[in-house]
Each structure stands twice: as structure tokens, then as C-alpha cells.
Amino acid sequence: MVDATIFQIVGYQNSGKTTFIKRMLSQLQQSNLSIVTLKHHGHGGKPDFQEEKDSHQHLKAGAVASLVEGDGHLLLHAEKSHWSLEEKLHLLSYFRPDLILIEGHKREPYPKAVLIRTQADVEILLKLDNIRVIFYWDEKLLEASKNMTDIKGFSINDPAGYEWLANYLQFKK
Question: Which of 42, 69, 76, 171 has the CA that lies 20 to 30 A from 161?
Fold first, then answer.
């Protein structure tokens, strides 16, 4: 059971999700919230990590997981055929966060911000549930999609959007 606010940042590839999360983390820095992030590697294949390191060698030799700690830094490598989002959230719950920001996993039911970069991306708004806010790269897309939804929308570069989301996330706890 995860006792944290869970919020997703979703969009198609190259919509700016990682940059957006970094900006949100900066915005939330003074909030006194304990925040962890979870990134979905949606590009296919395994995420890159250094194969010559001991932790990877342990995995190759048959370990299900390898944890490395040094000077207060912790790195966990684990492998199995599929990790559900719930399993990943359960792992992160150990850190007792107030907030978990998920990058990706767009079809999951958690509250989310959607990043819209192009006109073709607008279709995602019809496919997703629990959208709380939309961030647009082009003001014209913001205007065009107002007919589709009454969900709060901001330009990706509008500081008011980040402030709105930070306030929303702080008061969810």
C-alpha cells in the first residue's frame, strides 16, 4: 500500500516530460515534501546501465536484484520479465514519500498532467482518464482544444501553470 500522493506527467515521446519534471521538482523544492520520481522507459529494450560494474555482473550471474551502497548513495538493479506499476510504486514506498511523480505510464488511472507538443498529440486527450491539467507547447493548440475539454490548460512556458500544479500537489496530501 502506497501512502503518498501519486501524480503522472504524460505525453508522447519528445513532449518534454523529463524537462517538465525537473522544472516541477525545482518549483516544489521549498514545499518540504519528500518527493520520489518513477520514469517509464517506453522506448523499448532495457534502459542503459554500465555493464562492467559489479552490480550488473551479479545480475548476469543470476541475481534477481543487486543493491550497491556507497557514501550514502544507493543504487538498485533488479531484473524480471515485467514490473507492474504497482510493484514499482511499492518499492518506492520504502522511502515514505509524500509525493510520487510518475513520468509516463499514460494509461494508468492516476491524476495526471498531459503535455501536448503538436496538433497530432491532441488526440491523446480523448484517450486518457483523470487529466487534471494540460500543458501546451503552442498557444494555438491551447485555443483549439478548448472545445474538447474544460480541463485547466497552460502554456508550457507559463510560470503560472507550474505554480498552479505545485499548489495542487501540495494540497493533495
Answer: 42
Sequence-ordered strand ranges (E) for 17-136 = 35-39, 65-70, 73-78, 99-103, 112-116, 131-136
Report which residue type is found at 111.
P
Q: Do the domain assignments include residue 74?
A: no
Contact 89, 8 (CB under 8 A): no
Helix (H) or strand (E) holding 114: strand 112-116
104 torsion bin: left (phi>0), alpha (psi -120 to 50), beta (else): left
Place of cell 493533495: 172
pLDDT digits (tens, 9 = 90+) for 107-154: 999 999 999 999 989 888 889 999 999 999 998 887 767 766 778 999
Give the predicted TM-score (pTM) of the model: 0.85
Do residues 128 and 108 make contact, with C-beta atoms less than 8 angstroms apart? no
Range of the domain at 29: 5-45+83-170
- Residue 66 falls inside a structural domain: no
CATH of residue 38's domain is 3.40.50.300
For 165, residues 6+ apart whose C-beta sits below 8 A from its C-beta are: 24, 27, 113, 133
